[in-house]
Structure formats: C-alpha cells, structure tokens
Amino acid sequence: MTGMIQVCYLYPDLLNLYGDRGNVLAFTARCRWRDLPVFIHQIRPGENVDFKEMDFLFLGGGSDREQGLMAEDLKSRTGELGDAIEEGLVVLAICGGYQLLGNYYLTGDGKVIPGLGLMNFYTQAGEKRMIGNVAVEIDLDGKKYKLAGFENHAGKTYLNNVAPLGRVLSGYGNNGEDGLEGARYKNVFCSYLHGPLLPKNPELTDYLISAALKRRGLPHLLEPLDDSLEAFAKEAILRRMRVN
Amino acid sequence: MRKVFLDVKLKRCCYLMLRISAAIIMAKTANWLSRLFRKGKGSSLPGVVALRICPEILEKLAGQTKLGTIMVSGTNGKTTTNNMLAGILSSSGYRVVVNSIGANLIGGVTAAFIEKATLGGKVDCDYACLEVDEAFFPVISKKIKPGIVIVTNFFRDQLDRYGELDKTIKFVEDALKMIPEPKLVLNADDPLVAKIQINSGLPAFFYGLGENTGLSEKGGFRVREARFCPLCGERLSYSYYHYGQLGNFQCNKCGFHRPSGKVEACEAAASDGNFSFIIHYPGGSVPVNLPLGGLYNIYNALAAFSAGFLLERDPLKMSVYLKSYRPATGRMEEFNCPDKKVVLNLVKNPTGFGEGLTYLLSSAGPLDVLIAINDQAADGRDISWLWDVDFEMLEQIHGRINIFVCTGLRAQEMGVRLKYAGVPAEKIIVEPGYSNAVRRIMAGAAQHTYLLATYTALWPVEKELRKYVT
Questions:
Q1: What average pLDDT does this structure show over B25-40?
Q2: Which partner from A89, B1, B46, B129 sits 20 to 30 angstroms from A13, CA to CA?
Q3: Residue B28 confidence (pLDDT)
Q4: Right CATH number for B333-465 from 1.10.443.10, 3.30.565.10, 3.90.190.20, 1.10.486.10?
Q5: Residue B348 and residue A184: Cα distance in Å, rounded?
Q6: Segments making up each domain of chain B, as ranges
Q7: Confidence band, pLDDT 50/70/90 cuts, at residue B161
Q8: Rounded distance, CA A119 to CA A102, Å?
Q9: Would you state the pLDDT for residue B226?
C-alpha cells in the first residue's frame, strides 16, 4: 500500500485509565504484523490535528478532572471531528470518551454537562457503579462474534436514535436495563468495555483496520493471523461467565 | 434501684469479657484449623471470625498497647516498611504487635492482635506496627488512634475496588483530619503524598531520596500518576525522577514543589542486588547497606528509619538492623537453590511491576521468567492494568530471556499481553496450573529464575516452589 496508516491517540497523558492504551497497541501491532506501516500521532490538549487525514482515532476515558480537561479541548474541535466522522473516519471511543460523544451527561445533583453531540444518546449518573466482567454479542457484516471485557462505570447511557454496538450476554452494558452495549454510527464504535477491548477481541480490531483501509480506497481484505493466544484468553473468561 | 443499675453494668461487663474470650478462642481455633488444612498462609481468617463474635474486639485489644501505634498506608511498600519498623523496635527489646504478612484489611489487623492475646483477652505489647490498606484506613484509624502515620506513595492499584486514585487519597486525607495530633511521616518525592501535608494542614516529617545520576530514570514511557499538579492541575516539571512520579517535582503555576526531607538518602549505589547509601537525619548521618534489590526498598528503609527516628531509636543501631533485614514472602525473596538464583516478587500494580522488570534489565545473563496473574478480590478483579505495565521495555533483553511461563487464573491474558509487547510467540508458555508452571520454569536452562505473582497467586506459587528450593 502507499503511505502509512495514521493513528490518532488523543490525550495519551490524560486518558490512560484501565490500560486503554492497549487498544492502540493492538491496532498498531496487527497492522505491522501485516506489513502495513503505522504512524501514531499522540495529540495533547492544544496541539493541532487534522482529523480528515487520520485513519483511526482512539478516545479513552479518564478520572473526573482529566475528563473535564479533555472535554474542554475537544469542544473546540467538534466541527472538524464531526465532518471527519460523517466522511467515514474510524473511531473507537471507550467509557468516558464514549459518553463525551453523546448529547449530555446528567450528574447526580441534576447538573447537565453538555457532550459533543456527535451521536444521539445521553448518559445519566447511576446510583450504583457497574463493575465486572462483561460479554457482548456483536454483528460485523452479518457475522456474529462475542466480545469480552471489563466494565467500570457509574454513568448509565441510553440510546435515542443510534444503533448499539451489541447485545449484553453477561454483565451490565450501557445501563444494566435494556440489554444493550455501546453505540455505533458510520465507522464510530463506542463501548464501555475496558480489558482493554481490542487485544482480546481481534475480530473487532481487524474489522476496524479493514474499515480504515476501505475508506482510503485501499485493498481491505486482511491476511489472517495466528490468533490462538487471543482466542484462548477470550475463551477462558467467557467460560467463566458461562456464555462460551 | 442503684444496686440494680450496678448489677446490670456488672452483667454487661462480664458479658463483654465472655464474648471477647469466646471470640479469641474461636479465632485461635480457626487459625489452627486453617493451618492444619494448609489453607491460606497469612490469613485474616482469625480476625474475621473474632469480629463476627465480638465486633468491638479490635478496640479492646488494641487499646492495651502501651507506648503507641504506628500505621503504614499507601500503595506500595507497606509490608516491607512496616516489617522494617517492627524489626527496629523489637531489636531494641520492645514487644511489638505486627501484621507482618501483608493482611492489611480489618480482619488482618485484628488477627495480629489476637495472635498476641491471651484467652482472657490480655495483650502485652509496647508498640503496634500496622500496615493498613488505603481504603480501610478511615475505618481502622477510627478504632485505633495511631500516634504516627507513614504514607509511602500512591500508584494506581486495583481501581475497580476504589473507583479512582483521587478518591483513595481523599479517603486517607479525610481520615487523618479525624485523628488527634498524628505525626505524619511522608514521602517527599511523591507529589500525591506530599500534598497530604498541605491539604490536611498537619505537621509532617518528610523523607526522600536525593538525586542520583546512576539509579534515577532518564526517560522513556513510564506510568506517572501525577504528571499534573495535584493542587492546581498544571503540568509538573521535574529536574529528575527515580521511578513512577517520584522525583524532584515543581509546579511552575502554584509553586507546589518537593519539600526538603528531614531524612534523606544520598550517594546510593547498587551492586549485586544490594544497595548502599548514606542517610542524613537531623543532627547527623549514617551509612546503610540494604540486602535488597529494587530502588523502592531504599524508600521503605527511609520510611522505617524516619519513624524510628521519631521514636528516638539510635540511628546506628537502625543501620545495623537494616543490614540484616530479611524480606517477607515474595518481597524480592531469594531462595536457596544449588544451580541457580531464584527470586520471587509480589506485583500488584503497574509501577511495582515496572520496578520488577527494571530489576530484570539490570541482571546479567540468561533468564527464565514466570508471571502468575490472578483476578480475585485481593488482586483486583480488573486486570486491565497489565496493559499499563511497560513490558515493551523487555525488548532490550528478549535475547536473554529463554522462556516466559504465564500462570494463574488469567494466564492466557498475560500471554496476550506479552505477545503484543513484542515477545516472540515461541517464548510464551501458557500454563494455568501452578504445579506444571513452576515445574516448567524450574526445568529452565537459565542461571537466574525470576517469578512475579499477584497477591493471591503468591502463596500457591511459593508452595510449589518449595518443592524445588529451600
């Protein structure tokens, strides 16, 4: 292929809770193992980035204070990010990053913290923190896969007019009520799953890589890799949740 | 009327004494039974049993401590610091209650007192040295008022239990405000610990490690909790750092900076898994030889030395004691093995794990490495933190590591982590069962075998290891 795959890792200093940088590691490694060169842009608040030039954008979550700093910076870029998303930018947003893409976050004392409003859902503070292993069934181009991860969130997310990422097999998911997990719009994939999500779920990782190549008009059929270790790890935790 | 009232009081008193005795008897029996069946070594079970029978037992037993209680809290180094301090005090002839095996929740603390209690509920001790889990510090410090509180450091640890690090620190700060006149012994090099002095307004005795060109880190990717000023949010600047966020920090916005230490280690040098350094204290200095690897053990020694200093222990005698210090199970514990060097180390968070890996980098010759990862409550249910450990640094020594054996409940996950860190697949062996895993690592060809285990994996790994070493 010509050129490099441009990976945009937003605010790596602020948003590195729960090993989420593993998502960037997995995406990058699986490209490089196929001889697809990758360049990682680590973007800090205030630094310039042209989202349309990016192929994959990762947005994680942080603790409250750090999340506030990230929201402030990202708001000044909402227009550009929105345009890039409409035009097919591949995005993975986890936990706090996921919540931020929605309309708003309603806190326990009734305060509304506006989100970027790029996707049609909202989040409200729950009374109980939703913590534990989670299994989700997703559909990628008509094929069903199981995802495994770990969730740890107090916010309950409700989707208005946007598709979920998948259905909860075990655990809480978006809100512990409607059996849905995450959200999906164009090439944007949102989820509460830490673990981190991509290393143990290589089918999803490859789907993201493939979508990024497709958007650039490049051959997007990926050479298969030996994923026995990943499958073994996923199987072990799915078995414990009795959903294998 | 008065007589009846007295009667009731007397009855209540007798009833409480009876319950205390019953609790102690049951607890000691539970301890004996669990040892008989070789269940958990270092268990908090006796304490849990006793608290069930008599909820006020901890206050009643701990209240008999004659000279004072010292509590050690923070993320890493609690066990070693606490054991060093208890050793300093008992080598001076004091009788000390200590939860020396790292059982640091309320059950473990209670169990430490029960071990020293008579069946009638009498505890004859001068000092209590207690390591206390950060999240349990408020509860325990309410029941036992510590005279001295040591805070070692704050790193990310088992987030699923606490929510976030900021909250954990706030727990500790709030609890300190409830203690009458505690003396704080704080790590000057950790901004998250140093800020406790400012937020609590309490006087503090700081300890720290001076700049060292040979041992301090110079750069690269490392986990740093407090890259931002914990007081105003500005990015901190460092003139040097030792590991994690520990170092000489300064906030250029609000002026928050590393406080100068009352106790400072200088001229630290490492050789063959030992450290030598000089401790400067108010009024003098003393050379120390520490028979332990890992830069963090200098901090543990400094913390114990500082508390000993406040308790008027002789610095020279403390230095002599530290030279003979023997680590507790799995704290860089070395085993006797005829044909190889075998070291077992506990890992529980990215920073501690990173320090353990740094030790590997500093070793010479071929290595066999075993990593045991569990995800039970005491380990932290969420193992995402493995992805914050800088396994990528091992790339420099892939050539000299023969095999990585991954074991424990999340052995497979550990294998995936190594794979994505660039470890060649043929070197990764996933063997969930401890017995087979330890057999494979002990059959390895290297002269140096290094085993890392999370909390609940530590005992079973050690038990298997004992079949091969003494």
A1: 76
A2: A89
A3: 87
A4: 3.90.190.20
A5: 35
A6: 45-323, 333-465
A7: very low
A8: 5
A9: 55
pLDDT of residue A64: 67
Chain-centroid distance of CA B386 in Å reads: 19
- Give the residue-averaged pLDDT of A97-120: 92
- CB atoms inside a 10 Å sphere around CB B326: 11
Task: Please confirm, yes or no, whether B272 is among the known catalytic residues.
Answer: no
**Digit-coded pLDDT (tens) for B357-372:** 988 888 888 999 999 9
**H or E stretch including A123?**
strand A121-140
Cα–Cα distance list, B173 to B78, B142, B151 (Å): 17, 13, 11
ipTM of the complex: 0.95
For residue B392, the chain A residue with the least C-alpha distance is A25
> Do residue A233 and residue B415 have CB atoms under 8 angstroms apart?
yes
Helices (H), B250-377: 296-310, 315-323, 350-362
Entry field: residues in chain A: 244
Domain count, chain A: 1
Instruction: Measure CB to CB from residue B233 to each of A65, A132, A196 and give the nearest one.
Output: A65
Rg (CA), chain B: 23
Of B384, B388, B416, the CB nearest to A233: B416
* A181: exposed, middle or buried (Cβ count in 10 Å: 0-12, 13-18, 19+): buried
Answer yes or no: is pLDDT of B32 > 50. yes
**Could you read off the pLDDT of A25-54 as tens digits, one per residue?**
999 999 999 999 999 999 988 899 999 999
Give the residue on A whose Cα is nearest the Cα of B426: A229
* Strand (E) or helix (H) holding B256: none
Best interface-test mutation with B: which of A201, A229, A232 has the largest number of B CBs within 10 A?
A229
Of A8, A95, A153, A190, which residue is the catalytic one?
A95
Task: Mark yes or no for CB contact A226/B425 under 8 Å.
Answer: yes
Q: What are phi and psi of A223, to 5 degrees?
A: -65, 130
CB contact under 8 A, B384 and A195: yes
> Is A230 within 8 Å of B413 when comparing Cβ atoms?
no
Q: pLDDT band at residue B219, thresholds of 50, 70 and 90? A: very low
Give B413 to chain A, closest Cα distance, Å: 5
How far apart CA B245 and CA B236 sit, in angstroms, is: 10
Q: Which domain holds residue A111?
A: 5-240
pLDDT at B356: 87
Percentage, residues of chain B above pLDDT 90: 58
Cβ distance B171 to B138 under 8 Å?
Answer: yes
- Work out the minimum CA distance from A41 to partner chain B, whole angstroms: 15
Confidence (pLDDT) at A13: 75
**Collapsing DSSP states into helix, strand and coil, what is residue B45?**
helix
CB-based contact (8 Å) between A199 and chain B? yes
Length reported for chain B: 470
Q: Does the CB of A22 have a partner CB in chain B at under 8 Å?
A: yes
In terms of CATH architecture, what is B45-323? 3-Layer(aba) Sandwich (3.40)
Domain harbouring A218, CATH code: 3.40.50.880
**B377: closest CA of chain A, how far (Å):** 11
User: Which candidate from A25, A194, A195 shows the least CB-CB separation from B420?
Assistant: A25
